[in-house]
Amino acid sequence: MYIVLEGIDGAGKSTQIELLKEWLMSNGFQVETVLEPTNSEIGQLIRKFLQDEYATSDYMQKTLGLLFAADRVLLMNKINKLQEENKIILSDRSFYSSLAYQDPVDWIAELNKYAKIPDLVFLLDLDLKTSVTRSGETDEFENEEFLSCVKENYLELAKRNDNFKIIDGNKGPNMVAKDIKNEVAPLLGICKSSIIK
């Protein structure tokens, strides 16, 4: 199973992936975590470009769109191998991030048409002010105006795709984790009554 956590900056994706991984492993599942962008040379270049003062400009959006798509091709190969080993893959972001963050959407969708579609996507829906506070505005994408558009894009994606589950990311981490576990448990045959936190 390929499970993805999505959301605007500061939504708590990394924290929730670790909590979900620990819980799944305690229930006897083999779990691997992946991250977008990856730690490949392409991924490192993406991280550098995200710090650029013109990161939200039209030409940089297109550049980032291309780089993310290239980085994702490498990651899809890894995910395919992990699935062949019957491992559960937990991913911090997917091609849905590109659709939410980058423009133009039609072009971004075309670049990612061969990306693997996740079995389940948790959209951690977070208040904009909380997002900016948590993320500390370390790159050009971490401002309320831009993130407002991204949040709307994510909510629209959730409406159009059946694999999305919206989780209230404004709750404390343990409550968010419990909400996620309650969604995952029936899909993997785990008894819901065993979920404490």
Description:
There is one protein chain. The two termini are 22 Å apart. By secondary structure, the protein is an alpha/beta fold. Helix content is 54%, strand content 13%. It contains 8 helices and 5 strands, in the order βαβααβααβααβα. α4 crosses α7. It has one domain: 3-Layer(aba) Sandwich (Rossmann fold), CATH 3.40.50.
Question: Ends: how far apart?
Answer: 22 Å
* CATH structural fold name: Rossmann fold
Number of helices: 8
Quantity of strands, as a count: 5
Using the CA coordinates, give the radius of gyration: 16 Å
Class by alpha and beta content: alpha/beta
Mean pLDDT, rounded to whole units? Answer: 92
Could you spell the SSE succession in H and E letters?
A: EHEHHEHHEHHEH
- As a percent range, the share of helical residues equals 40-55%
What is the strand and helix layout of this fold?
Elements: E1 2-6, H1 13-26, E2 31-35, H2 41-50, H3 58-84, E3 88-92, H4 95-101, H5 105-111, E4 120-125, H6 128-135, H7 144-160, E5 164-168, H8 173-188
Parallel strand pairs: 1-3, 1-4, 2-3, 4-5
Structure keywords:
197 residues; 8 helices; 13% strand
Can you describe this structure in just a few lines?
The protein is α/β, with parallel strands linked by helices and 197 residues long.
